[in-house]
Design a protein that fits this description.
This protein is an alpha+beta fold. The protein has helices at 5-14, 48-56, 67-75, 84-95, 135-149, 162-166, 174-185, 200-210; strands spanning 17-19, 29-31, 35-38, 60-63, 99-106, 109-119, 122-130, 154-158, 170-173. The chain has one domain (5-210): Aminopeptidase. It contains 8 helices and 9 strands. The strands form 2 sheets. Strands 4-5-6-7-8-3-9 form a 7-stranded mixed β-sheet, with helices on both faces. Strands 1-2 form a two-stranded antiparallel sheet. α2 runs antiparallel to α8. The longest helix has 15 residues, at 135-149.
C-alpha cells in the first residue's frame, strides 16, 4: 500500500500513526496503542530547576525554522522507527502546513526540538531530541505554551515514557483517547496564529497561572 500525505492525515484522524521497524526497513506499519500517552495542556510540570533554566533565556526558540533538521536529529540514534519513507511523508505534510517543528538553539547550534502533526485542534507529537541538558524540556514548555494560546485541545504523545511522565504526561485508554480526539476534530486550531512566547519568564508565568 502506498502511503500518501492525505492517507497519513486520515490515519491521524482515525487515531493511528505510522512506524517502521528500523531506518533501513522500507515498509511502514500502522500503530494503534491500547494505552495512549497525552499531555494535559494545563498539567505541564515545570520544576524549580527547569523554571530557572527557562528564565535564564540562554537559548533561542523558533517555529518551523528547521523542520528537516529536527527530524534528522530525532532519527540520529542507534535505533529509530524513522525511515526514509516516513521522513519524506512528514516533509510533505510540513510543506502543506500540516506538520510543524519547534526548535531550540544555543549559540547558533540546534540543540533540541520536537515535531508533530496537527489535525483539528489536536497536536500529535511524533518525536523530540536533546543535545544539551534540558533542551527537550525547554522545547516542550514553549510548545505547550503555544498550543494553549492557539486553541489546541489535545496533545498526543503516542506513548508514555518516564521522561514525559515527569513533566506531567499521563496514560489513558484507547477509548478515552478516541473520545478526546473526536472532540478535538470538531474544532480547528492554528499553531501559527500566535507568536512564540516573548521570553522563558512568560512561559513560566503562564504555566503557573494555568496549572
Amino acid at each position: 500500500m502506498t502511503v500518501t500525505p492525505d492517507l497519513l492525515l486520515q490515519a491521524y484522524r482515525a487515531g493511528v500513526f505510522p512506524m517502521a521497524e528500523h531506518r533501513d526497513d522500507p515498509e511502514v506499519f500502522w500503530v494503534d496503542p491500547r494505552k495512549r500517552g497525552v499531555f494535559p495542556l494545563n498539567g505541564f510540570h515545570i520544576s524549580r530547576s527547569l523554571a530557572k533554566t527557562l528564565r535564564r533565556d540562554a537559548y533561542q526558540v523558533t517555529l518551523d525554522a528547521a523542520f528537516g533538521d529536527v527530524i534528522d536529529a530525532c532519527a540520529d540514534r542507534s535505533e529509530t522507527w524513522i525511515n526514509q519513507s516516513i521522513r519524506t511523508l512528514y516533509e510533505d505534510l510540513h510543506h502543506q502546513g500540516d506538520a510543524h517543528s519547534l526548535e531550540v538553539w544555543m549559540d547558533g547550534r540546534l540543540v533540541g526540538g520536537v515535531y508533530g502533526v496537527t489535525v483539528g485542534a489536536a497536536f500529535c507529537g511524533e518525536s523530540m531530541f536533546s543535545r544539551e541538558r534540558d533542551a527537550s524540556k525547554i522545547a516542550l514548555a514553549w510548545l505547550i505554551d503555544l498550543l494553549r494560546r492557539t486553541g489546541f485541545m489535545l496533545f498526543d504523545t503516542q506513548f508514555l515514557t518516564h521522561h514525559l511522565a515527569s513533566l506531567g504526561a499521563i496514560e489513558i485508554t484507547r477509548s478515552e483517547y478516541r473520545a478526546l480526539l473526536a472532540d478535538a476534530l470538531e474544532h480547528r486550531a492554528d499553531i501559527t496564529s500566535a507568536p512564540l512566547a516573548a521570553s522563558g519568564q512568560d512561559v513560566v508565568q503562564r504555566n503557573t497561572q494555568t496549572s
